[in-house]
Amino acid sequence: MHREPEEKRILVLNSGSSSLKYEVFLMPRRQSLGRGAVERIGESTGTLAQSSSRGSIKREEPFPDHAAAMACVTTCLCDPDSGILGSLSELDAIGHRIVHGGEKFSSSVRIDAEVAAAIEANIELAPLHNPANLTGIREAERLLPGLPQVAVFDTAFHQTMPPTAYLYGLPRELYDRYRIRRYGFHGTSHRFVAGRALELLGRKPENTNLITCHLGNGASITAIEGGRSIDTSMGFTPLEGLMMGTRSGDFDPAILSYLADRGMSMKELSAMMNKKSGLLGLSGISNDLRDLEAAAEKGIRNASEALDVYAHRVRKYIGAYMAELVKVDALVFTGGIGQHGARMRERICHRLENIGIMMDYSRNLEDGSSEGLVSHDYSPTSVLVIPTNEELQIAMDAFGLLFPAGDEPRRRRTDVNI
Predict the structure, then answer these.
(1) Is the pLDDT of residue 407 over 80?
(2) β-sheet bridge partners, residue 301
(3) What is the mean pLDDT of the chain?
(4) Would you say the C-alpha torsion 202, 371, 245, 137 has a positive or negative sign?
């Protein structure tokens, strides 16, 4: 493929505990050249699936660790028949999704030994994610030596929250000694859809306030004032906030001691809150919105109540953030449920007319999953549906950080707030 001299190819890596997702972007066109994923790393048999305009690749074989997965990825990227690239030398940089940056990172940064050490130091805050993220960085460095790498943190966008939003009503020593505070997650998604909302509305961040709802199996909502996150629903962990697919969200913490007194262990309580609660636990049927809506249509009470509780929790947070922001220019829905769940969006926006959110219910159903406006033209607060694209945001950050127009590549950091 011919490209202009200023164009760069960015490989985006999202290394999970048992998976490795990847995508290659041509920047600044924001064009995806192809993507793939390795699943079931560490199991007896894993899978790799890759697709691009040149074709698809599917492999089923053991991937004992991320090193084996990354080696296979680099081979498939340059497959002579269906590869995304002609050779690895075509890559200009690598961007990594990093779950937890703690309080140290409020922006994306170029990775060096100091940054890698900081990511490792935050493993205690994200024990399931940061180790895998760090492995992805080290394997990329080993297999693609010399390529600049950029870390993009899920928590970074929320580092602009004031103490009134991130401090808990717990003894101060818990924050001072153990860094227990609200961190927030899904920051890359919230930042991407907020930026896209500004483009669609033709507005500047400085005079725009937004509420962004990332609703999926994991769900969070963020209040954005003048381009900066000032509050978000997820907390010290992704468990706090909205009710989710299998996570409980907010509830009275005294319930835990009540159950512990009746014989439940901390391990059992943790599994209950994270894997057996939310839509799945309340309905007793499924954590999939489509299954629950089908069950509700058949008159199954538990399904209807689970859907109503989900909408109620989102609506409460919207109301709270409306009060905090005073003026809200747009409410944005994204994520699997936020984008595709037209009926759930209707449930959420019902009864919000009194605070200036006036959904056009016909437009909402007709437009379905498409990007665009789903509110009445006269609504004081616009309601938007915007598909998220965290991978593209990572590529944008890496490109902007390493190859700024008319400047030498910056070596350490860049301000990536909207």
Answers:
(1) no
(2) none
(3) 94
(4) negative
